[in-house]
Amino acid sequence: MKKEVMLVTGAGQISMAIARRIGFGKKIILGDKKKENAETIAKIMNDAGFDVVPMEMDLSSRESILALIAEGQKYGEIRMLVNGAGVSPSQAPIEAILKVDLYGTAVLLEEVGKVIAEGGTGVTISSQSGWRMPALTAEQDEQLATTPTEELLSLPMLQPENIRDTLHAYQMAKRCNEKRVMAESVKWGERGARLNDIAPGIIVTPLAIDEFNGPRGDFYKNMFARCPAGRPGTADEVANVAELLMGPAGAFITGSTILIDGGATASYYYGPLKPEQ
Ligand SMILES: NC(=O)c1ccc[n+]([C@@H]2O[C@H](COP(=O)([O-])OP(=O)(O)OC[C@H]3O[C@@H](n4cnc5c(N)ncnc54)[C@H](O)[C@@H]3O)[C@@H](O)[C@H]2O)c1
To answer: Which of 21, 64, 89, 235 could be cross-linked to 58 through a Cys-Cys bond (beta carbons 3.0 to 4.6 Å apart)?
Structure first.
């Protein structure tokens, strides 16, 4: 039987929370670089009444992204995309962060944008990190938004001499996600589909726990303790935003990034989290 298909990348907590919120009745194709992660989440969800097919996929590979799409098309039209795959500054070197978070996301949005069904919706997950860098030039923003995917990693601003460390690479990747969503949403719109981005603050997941235990652990713990909400967020709260963006109540929202960070960014600019000069 044909079903509407939801493609999900990254078998992590944020992906699962979104898939559980809005993936009912859909055939969910769940791709992760670690097949065991995909299988674990698929089992939890299938035991709870969802219909999930786990598969091994690598967001940094166009071939692998095309295989994910092809798997989905076996079951029906691609109706939803959730991109929750990614690596954080404490998990991977600069090259891997740029290849997965920046290039891979751009390729995924491009390729799914070629096949998304009319009325379809997508979200990708960037980060508050992308809001913490000083503004780029208008020309750099446009390059991140519109440079052909295979040329993205050759941009001068992404060369090793211009990337300070893994955190800077992550910030550039996440800034690129926001710009890419704006540019791609125009193309998705030509197919009658919408594409948006969610920029979370600290959300307790294995990725965030690696950050708490990494070289910037104290910085992150201070950030959630002193932000207006006074705590880290949960993946289910990110799913609240995804539900809005991907459902009928979000019909007028596309090409947009929604920040959900307990007020940490506001405090970073205008409150107690402001870095000392
Ligand atoms: N947790 C946070 O505090 C937080 C904050 C801001 C943004 N984010 C972003 O949210 C997204 C999801 O993170 P999460 O917190 O749910 O993490 P998570 O650790 O729960 O899940 C991430 C998953 O992505 C998979 N993955 C890594 N590289 C991959 C690749 N090349 N191809 C396919 N899968 C790959 C991992 O194996 C893992 O299963 C990431 O893009 C992350 O940058 C998370």
So the answer is: 64
